Structures are given as structure tokens and as C-alpha cells.
Amino acid sequence: MNSVADILLDWYAREGRDLPWRRTRDPYRIWLSEVILQQTRVAQGTEYYLRFTERFPDVASLAAAPEDEVLKLWQGLGYYSRARNLHAAARQVVERFGGRFPVALEEVRSLRGVGDYTAAAICSAAYDAPCAVVDGNVYRVLARLFDLDAPIDSTAGKRAFAELAQSQLDTAHPGRYNQAIMDFGALRCTPSSPRCEACPLAGQCLALAAGTVAARPVKQGKTRVRDRWFNYLHVSSGDRTLLHRREGRDIWQGLYEFPLIETEEPAELPELVRLPQFRELLGDAPWHLVRSIPLPKHQLSHQTLHAVVHRIETLSLTPAAAAMAVPTAALGDYAVPRLIDRYLIKYQI
DNA sequence: AAGCCGGGGCC
DNA sequence: GGCCCAGGCTT
After folding, report:
1. What nucleotides of chain C have any atom within 7 angstroms of a protein Cβ?
2. How far apart are CA A250 and CA A163, in angstroms?
3. DSSP string of A95-117?
4. CA A30 to CA A121: how far, in whole Å?
5. Is residue A317 exposed (0-12), middle (13-18) or buried (19+ Cβ within 10 Å)?
6. In chain A, which end has fewer C-beta atoms inside a 10 angstrom radius, N or C?
7. Among all residues of A, which ones are annotated catalytic?
8. Rounded to whole angstroms, what are the CA distances from A113 to A36, A61, A327?
């Protein structure tokens, strides 16, 4: 009766959050919320969840949409592969499961963008399947409760925590228990300043007894940040503007931006003009520089972007440029990175 | 096993 | 400036 699970469920009944996706057992909506919340705080993701459920009330409507529209709705949330995978998975549900969201854990786990955590979260919340979730909150709560120093970003550590989490699961109420331990991590057992003196689990917390709370969980990986220099060519001709869809294995895949010349170091316009990419775009026809605008330094978790926008006007477009031209009035229909969005807003384009 | 993928909030 | 966030995919 005084088990960890009982204390967590009791705490959750008093202090748990009332969140939109907890008011439904629709696996589609629960799946949607889980993908949105991957590596994303509830406060940041909630607005997107409401936006998506309104525009795409069921999996069929999501599957029927063009990928660009899904990305546009996702704009600003980051980790855009989630949006592409979400869309691909919706089509998987239609094609492989006849539009019915799968029930079996392994079938759910087979969907694009659904890993161990998300599959367990969906199946426990929607179907009360006895699957323990292991997210960042669970790592922290369990690492402290049991004073475990296994690195959470090592294979052995992940396996150890997964088994421990499963052993702690309240199999009578898997859905509620999972929500409880995650809320507990998010609201009570916080990364810093967890206020252990007033914690309902203080009596059972081994890290508290050992004085190692601040050192749990252990993580071995270190994040390296590299610098990149983006030289954007904001080219307009009449009522059209050049826009380009990012491809390849890089940031912002599938999003749109101005034609980009990336350099190894800061570059001035005269240097860019000599490059073949520039000549292919502007050709030999006359053009003129309106002005060059250095954008504020843009910080990603693993990259620091130094971007400059060169506003250029030209009378005629080369074939390569014409293929990229879109009506300037339609720029708002395209999913663009935050960096570009801020620029467009600031200069009212 | 290690790297990569965004953006925002907190200290 | 570094860490963290309801992680997953690729190499």
C-alpha cells in the first residue's frame, strides 16, 4: 500500500496536470500528442496538438494531406523528421491497417517515428496495455529513487532502466501510472531544485539518502556545437521571389528557404558573386543589391548559424531561377525555418 | 555505439 | 554557455 507506485498514483490524483490528450482514449490523438512531445516541453507542444487535431481530426485526414501542408502546420516546432514520419505513418495506417489504428504493441511500434517510448505510451494510454514508458522524466525519477549511476545514453544503461521501469509498473493501472511517473518527473522530481525535503518519496529515495540527487541521472555524451555560415540570396523579380526546398540529410529537410550559398567562413558579396552557384542563379542579366542584412545569430542544439540575407532585385530570371520562383504573396504558404520566418516578419515580406 | 536532428526555457 | 525537454533514425 506504500509502494512507490501507490505514492506516485496518489500524488498524481492530487497534483497531476489536466492535459487535452488525457481527455481522450483515441489512439490517433494520443499518438499525435506523443510525437509532438518527443524532445519537446508540454508548454511548447500543446498549441501544436490543438492545431493538428482541429485540422486533422482523424488519421484519414492526415494521410490525405500533402506533406507540405503537414510541415507548414509543424513550422516552428523543430525536429521536422517527426512531421514527415507522422505523415508517412498516417499513410501506413491507411494502407496496412485499413485506416484503423493498430492495437498490438509490435504493430504500433512498426509505424514510422514510433520507437519504444512512443509505442508504450500509446498502448498504455489508449488500451491500458502493461507497457512501462521510459522517457527523460522516468530516467530521472528512477535514477534518483534507486541511485543508479548507469549512463542513460549507453545501451546497457537503457536496458537496465527499461527493465527497472517495467518492474515498477502498476499493472492494474498502466495508463495512469505512466502518466503519473512522467508528471512527477516534470513537476516534482525536476532536473534542478527538486525540493526533496517536501517530496512524498523522500523516505524511499536512495539518491536523497546518499546525497547524489543532483548527480542523477548520469549522462556520458557531450554535445559539440559547430559554426556554419549561411549566405542567403533573397532574389525578387517583379512579383515573384526565389524559394528553394531543402533536401538531403541536413537540418530543415523539406522546409523552404531562399537560395543558399554556404561557406566555410564569413563571406562578402563580391566573393559570392564569383561562385558558380551565384552565376547559375543570376546569370548575366543585370541585377542590383538592395542591401545586405546580417541576421541575429541562430542557435540550434548542435549548430550555431551565422546567416546573412542579400536582397537582390533583377529584371529577368535564368531558367534555373525561374524554376524556383513563387509569387511573393504566397510566401506565407511555405514551411520555413524559424530563422527565415523571423526575417520575413521583421521586414514585413 | 555514436551522431544527427530544432527550438525554447532555465540556470 | 550548458543542460534539458513525453525520442527516433541513420550510419
Report:
1. 2-11
2. 34
3. HHHTTSPP-SHHHHHTSTT--HH
4. 8
5. buried
6. N
7. 34
8. 11, 18, 34
**Bridge pairing between strands A226-237 and A260-263:** antiparallel
Residue whose Cα is closest to the C1' of B11:
A192
Q: Which three cell numbers stand for residue A5?
A: 507506485
Three-state secondary-structure class, residue A234: strand
Which of A 115-144 have CB under 7 A of nucleic chain C? 115-119, 121, 135-137, 139-140
- Where helices occur in chain A by DSSP H, the ranges are 4-15, 27-36, 42-55, 59-64, 67-74, 81-97, 105-109, 116-127, 136-145, 155-168, 174-187, 206-210, 269-273, 276-282, 319-322, 338-346
Distances (CA, A) of A35 to A121, A208, A232, A325: 10, 33, 31, 33
Tens-level pLDDT at each residue, chain A (349 residues): 569 999 999 999 999 999 999 999 999 999 999 999 999 999 999 999 999 999 999 999 999 999 999 999 999 999 999 999 999 999 999 999 999 999 999 999 999 999 999 999 999 999 999 999 999 999 999 999 999 999 999 999 999 999 999 999 999 999 999 999 999 999 999 999 999 999 999 999 999 999 999 999 999 987 789 999 999 999 999 999 999 999 989 999 999 999 999 999 999 999 999 999 999 999 888 999 999 999 999 999 999 999 999 999 999 999 999 999 999 999 999 999 999 999 999 999 9
3-state secondary structure of A66: coil
Find the helix packing angle between A116-127 and A27-36, rounded to 10°. 150
Of A32, A58, A59, nearest to A46 by C-alpha is A32
Helix (H) or strand (E) holding A245: strand A244-245
Which nucleotides on chain B have any atom < 7 A from a protein Cβ?
1-11
Residues A303, A324: Cα–Cα separation, whole Å: 27
- Residues A218 and A160: their CA atoms lie apart, in Å, by 13
Find, among A268, A276, A260, the residue nearest to A340 by Cα.
A260
Q: How far apart are the first and last CA of chain A?
A: 62
